[in-house]
Design a protein that fits this description.
rod-shaped; two-stranded antiparallel ribbon; homodimer; 422 residues; 56% helix; mainly alpha; 8 helices
Chain lengths: 422, 422
């Protein structure tokens, strides 16, 4: 399944699997019913190295691969969606490679040597290291989610595994929690500001030195009042922090977000379950085929040495069953590969979605933290202005004027004493 | 005592009293021993309208006043210090008037009519309203303490009185207390700042959203740290408030100030006590003279109607005693007037001192409250700068870079799945 002519058309109807797709040639014409030439009909070799033919053309009618791989660095394994050419073209636009396709000859149908080139882990099939054509990143230089999360990871705490997709999903859920923690932090700041404002406001009402009079008294009164003005500034700051930073952080991507994530989670998980189920069927069919082939072999041997009175009829029957088992296996394999393709497509689409969500999250937070710093700047500026009137009155202080005012109010008498006489 | 030739010299030796002094003529020549012409020797009229002569020239040898006053608006009653010409000249420089002296004829020595022109209140003697030459302010347009606190004020709470000087003193003591209250206010502000700083510092250590990574994580970490930077700014503010405003307010004019004020208080109070004592002597001598004169009158009448066998000798004795009583009275009067002059001088000097202290107090407070506003300005500016690094990191945020970092750390596998085959 790894070597294909660059001009190889890919036709998909209801079945399908992962195939190679050359980006340098135009998109193939949509003709789902074109029959492949017989050379390209499928054949397969059983693990016991017996080859046999099947009568049923694969539903996919596609180029199949043999176990022996030919490296083809210029072609890229690109998933195509199940639903039609438009999406295929879209994906084509997404996954643009610049390497020219190489020229590879069709795989031989029968090869006596069996070499393991693939491995199936947790029901997902991967090429073994060094086997198969080199895979190019779908989105080179972008560190895109869709390129790095194919395998499952062993859960260090137990015997279960975590899928790559779950890692991506956890990141988004974590992001939601982190945004909540940020909101909490801002909330704590708000409380501190309110406390500060409350204390300043209370102190501004203090009667300390209220008996100071004149221009000094005015300056002092304004100084005390300025604490209240500062309190107002900080209160305003805390209110804006609440409406412009804390609250948005709390409500950004509300409850629906988690639901949407869960939908993604279930959708992908379901596809993996389906895949597991299909893989089980493949294994079961493979075993059944092996049994049937063994039975046929035994019966043929017996005929040759005339050990039993089994007739040719029996052998024909055994051969028929064997062929049916082979057909079953092919069908199961097809279904498995279709399901894997489907899962593959959904993985790409959904991981790209998560990637987008992450970019949005980061940018949104950046924007709101900038709002925080803007409010901080404003606050310091407004705070500075509360000192201005105090400065003004301090500048206007006039001890002479204060004396005049005080003397006018407190004088006891202007008439100076004179000598006493008789 | 109110009408004097502008050229009238004032001579003071060890006695003395309040006299007029013309500021427009040059300071008199210092000749304490010049004897006044006989016309200017003192004579006085007793309350009973008997006139008598005294043999003893007044110690002061000064112009005296009769009970009848002549208004002389151009002359000013100016106190002169007891201790010599230099201070007299100094006071002259202080109390500069611009009105040209008027020309007044010397008072007649004997006037049959007795008109009350003065009143003694709490042992201090004042001209009655409308009587005596108009008094000009010692320091016009300055609302100087030395011009407005001559009389005592009735204590509204009781039957005692409060001297003008005590009002001035209380002002300074009050000032000391107000400065202490200002220090207390600043102290409260310091506590508020420390609380605020403590809260910010504590919050800056919060682990909230610490798991945010990449450039977003860096910006968030710096945002949290900036709270600690703000805390440092406010702590610095509170420390400076303490050393540059609160502490000075507490220590300005330490304990010595109150002691100094008390010294002034006692000094002036002592002079008033002396004055009271001298006044009592005057009253006592006045009464003794009256008794003596009564006795003389009775004896003279008896002689005329030959009612008794009193001889001329007895009458001469009575007359002698009367004359002595008159001398006593004059002496007491002199002492009283000297003491009043002394008190007067000290009042002027000390009230000027208090006035100066008040100006200094107001200016010192102005300076330190300006320090407060300066610190406030600085604080807001430093506070602004704590946001800069946060802004910087927010600007440098890069979702693509963050993805790269995260993917590198968390990827599960780059190898994409391929179709399964047999």
């Amino acid at each position: 399944m790894t070597s294909h002519s660059p001009l190889c058309l890919f036709i998909r109807s209801s079945g399908g699997g992962l195939a190679s797709y050359s980006m340098s040639s135009p998109a193939p014409q949509p003709d789902p019913d074109r029959q492949l030439p017989s050379c390209e009909r499928r054949s397969y070799t059983s693990p016991e190295e017996l080859t046999f033919h099947t009568n049923s053309p694969s539903k996919a009618n596609r180029c199949s691969s043999s176990k022996k791989t030919r490296k083809s660095p210029e072609t890229t394994n690109v998933p195509l969606r199940n639903s039609g050419w438009c999406k295929r073209e879209r994906l084509a636009a997404m996954f643009c490679t610049t390497k020219p396709p190489g020229s590879v000859s069709p795989a031989k149908r029968q090869i006596n040597e069996v070499k393991e080139t693939k491995t199936t882990i947790n029901c997902v099939t991967f090429p073994l290291p060094g086997e198969g054509p080199e895979q190019q990143l779908l989105k080179p230089n972008e560190w895109s989610y869709c390129d790095y999360f194919w395998a499952d990871r062993k859960d260090p705490q137990g015997t279960t595994h975590v899928t790559g997709f779950e890692v991506l999903l956890q990141k988004q859920l974590k992001g939601k929690q982190l945004q909540k923690e940020m909101a909490e932090f801002i909330h704590e700041r708000i409380k501190i500001e309110e406390e500060y404002a409350k204390n300043l406001s209370k102190l501004s009402l203090s009667p300390l030195a209220a008996q100071e009079e004149g221009t000094l008294g005015e300056a002092w009164t304004q100084l005390k009042k300025s604490l209240h003005d500062e309190a107002e500034v900080h209160l305003k700051f805390s209110n804006k922090l609440h409406t412009e930073v804390e609250k948005p952080l709390l409500t950004f991507r509300g409850d629906n977000f988690k639901k949407d994530l869960k939908k993604y989670d279930h959708h992908i998980a379901d596809l993996r379950k389906q895949l597991a189920s299909r893989f089980a069927s493949v294994e079961k069919a493979r075993k059944a085929l092996a049994d049937r082939q063994k039975d046929l072999e035994v019966k043929t041997q017996q005929l040759e040495i005339k050990l039993s009175n089994k007739t040719e009829e029996d052998i024909k029957k055994a051969r028929r069953k064997s062929t049916q088992a082979g057909d079953d296996l092919m069908r199961c394999l097809d279904l498995y590969n279709q399901t894997q393709s489907k899962w593959f497509e959904e993985m790409v689409t959904t991981s790209m979605e998560l990637e987008k969500l992450e970019v949005e999250r980061v940018e949104w937070i950046q924007q709101h933290l900038r709002q925080y710093t803007t409010l901080r700047h404003e606050t310091d500026m407004f705070n500075q202005s509360t000192v201005e009137p105090v400065d003004q009155l301090l500048q206007n202080m006039d001890p002479a004027k204060d004396r005049e005012l005080w003397v006018k109010e407190n004088k006891t008498g202007e008439v100076r004493p004179v000598d006493l006489d008789i």
